[in-house]
């Protein structure tokens, strides 16, 4: 399964979140865009549905300060 996200989080930080979450996914930066003056990375997340959800849960917690 594949999911693409737009995020202001730097790729190195995404890697840390992936490691902390324990998710077995592959992250690929597809490019960068700027929206309203904010640089965003287009990131492709590949893995099975459960692992992608594990990563996304870790991402939400990391950004919420958890």
Distance N to C terminus: 27 Å
| Residue fraction in strands | 35-45%
- The count of DSSP E runs of length 2 or more, i.e. the number of strands, is 3
Uncertain regions spanning at least 5 consecutive residues: none
Quaternary state of the chains: single chain
Shape: globular
Mean pLDDT: 95
| Helix coverage percent | 25-40%
- Please identify the structural class as seen in this structure: alpha+beta
Rg, Å, rounded: 11 Å
Helix/strand order, N-terminal first: EHEEH
Count up the helices.
Answer: 2
Q: Which strand order spans the largest sheet, edge to edge or round the barrel?
A: 1-3-2
Main β-sheet description? 3 strands, antiparallel
List the keywords:
single chain, 66 residues, alpha+beta, three-stranded antiparallel sheet, 38% strand, globular
Description:
The chain has 66 residues and is an alpha+beta fold. It is 39% helix and 38% strand. It has 2 helices and 3 strands. Strands 1-3-2 form a 3-stranded antiparallel beta sheet, with helices on one face. The protein is globular. The termini are far apart.
Write a brief structural summary.
39% of the residues lie in helices and 38% in strands. By secondary structure, the protein is an alpha+beta fold.
Set down the secondary structure blueprint.
Layout: E1 2-7, H1 11-21, E2 26-35, E3 38-46, H2 49-63
Antiparallel strand pairs: 1-3, 2-3
């Amino acid at each position: 399964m594949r999911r693409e996200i737009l995020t202001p989080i730097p790729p190195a930080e995404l890697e840390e979140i992936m490691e902390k979450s324990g998710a077995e996914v592959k992250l690929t930066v597809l490019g960068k865009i700027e929206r309203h003056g904010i640089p965003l990375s287009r990131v492709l997340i590949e893995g099975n549905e459960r692992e992608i959800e594990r990563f996304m849960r870790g991402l939400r917690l990391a950004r919420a300060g958890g």
